Amino acid sequence: MVRAVVASTVGTSIEWYDYFLFGTMAALVFPKLFFPKSDPLTGTLNNYAIFFVGFLARPVGAWLFGTYGDRIGRKATLIATLLFMGIATFLIGVMPTYNSIGLWAAVILVVLRLCQGIGVGGEWGGSVLMSMEWGSQKRKGFLGSWPQFGVPVGLLASTAITALTLTLAGAATFEAWAWRVPFLLSIILVGVGLYIRLGVMETPVFRSIVQEQRVEARPVTEVIRRNWREILLSALLRLPEQAPFYLFTTFVFTFGAFATKLNKPFLTWAVSAAAVISFFSIPFFGHLSDRIGRKTMYMAGIAVMAVWGFVYFGLYSTAIPLVVFIVIALSLIPHDMQYGPQAALIAESFTGRLRYSGASIGYQLASVIAGGPAPYIATRIWAGETFLPAKNPYMISLYILLCCVIGFGAVALLKDRSQLDHTKEYEEQPEAAEATAARRAMG
Predict the structure, then answer these.
(1) Which residue, 248, 238, 387, is CA-closest to 309?
(2) Domain total for the chain?
(3) What pLDDT shows up at residue 442?
(4) What H or E segment, with its residue span, contains residue 334?
(5) Distance between CA 256 and CA 247 in Å, rounded?
(6) Is the pLDDT of residue 63 over 90?
(7) Greater model confidence, 299 or 126
(8) Which of 72, 184, 195, 394 has its CA 20 to 30 A from that of 227?
C-alpha cells in the first residue's frame, strides 16, 4: 500500500509540475515570447486562451486513458500518461519562439499544450485509484488525498524553480533563454517517476475484476449510460475548488502586474509558500473527511471559500507587501478543505470496473467550465470587458461566489457512497446501499 501511495504521489507531482509550469510562464513571459506585437493586456488574454486549450484537452485524456485504465489496468495507463506529459513539456523547452518563426510558434505551443492536457486528463483517475484501491475501506479519504498532495508539490516545484531561475538569471536573461530551464528539467523528473511506477504492482481491485472476467468492453459508454448524473455532479462540485485555485496560482501574477505593481519574484515566492502549507492541509482534510463525513467536509470548504474570495481580493488590493504575502500564502486553505476529500468523494461514486473512466471524466469535465476559463474570465472582468464594473476586485469575488453556490448544490445532490465496499461491485451490495440511504434520510 505504501509503495502504491508513493508511486501515485510522486508521479502525480511530476505531472502537475509540468502542467503548472505552463501556467506560471503564461503569466510571466509567454506574452512577450509568442505575442510580442500585442499590448500587455491582449498578450495576456492570448496566452490564457492557449492555457485554456490544455483544459479543453483534459476530458479527451480522461476518455482515452480512462478506457485503457478500466480495460488493461491502472499501472500501464499511468506509465503512459507520465511519458505523454513529460515529453510534451520537454519539447516546450526546446521549441522556437515568435522571433524565429513568427505565429507558427504559437501554433506549436497550442499543440504541445493539447498534449499536456491529454496527459494530465488521464493521470488523475489512475493515480487516485492506485492509492485508494490498495488501501482500507475506512481510510479512503486520507489515502485518496495523497495523489491530491501531488498538486502542491508540483505547484511548489514549478513556482520555486521558476523563481530561482528568474532570481539568478535576472529578468532580461530569463526572457531571452533561461525560461527554458524549468521545462528541460522535466525530463529528469519523468525518469524518476517512471522508475518508481514500474516497480508497483497492479491494484487488487483491478486484478479481481480480471480474474472474475468482469472487464467492461466499452467502459466510457457504459459509465455515461449508468452514471451520467454522477459524472455531471462531479464536474459541477469542482467549480468552487478549481476556479479559485487557478485564480490564486495563475491569475495572481496578472493581478499583481495590473493592480499592485508587485514584482514577479515576490509573487512566485508567495505562491510557493501557499504550496508548502498545502503539504499539510490536503492530507489533514482528507483524513478529517474519514471522521466527519466526505460531504460534510466538502460543504464546509465551499462555505469558507465563498467568504474567502472577498477577503483575498480585498487584502491583495492593499498592495502592502507583507499583507499580500500572507494572504497569498494562506489562499489555498479553503481550496484544500475541498481538495483533500475530493478524490474519494468522486471515485467512490463509481463501481470498480467503471471507476477509472467515470471518475476521470467527471473530474476533468470541470476543467472546461472551471479551471480553464477562470484566469481568462478574471482578466476580462478586471479590464472591464464584461457587464461588471472595471478594476473592481470584488467583482472577481462575485465570480467565486457564483461558483460556490453551484458547487454546494451539486454536493448536496450527489449520493453518499462512502459506506460501500470499494473492493466489490456496487450492484452486489444492495444492503450497504440501502443502509447508507436510510442513515442519510434520518439526518
Answers:
(1) 248
(2) 1
(3) 47
(4) helix 333-347
(5) 12
(6) yes
(7) 299
(8) 72
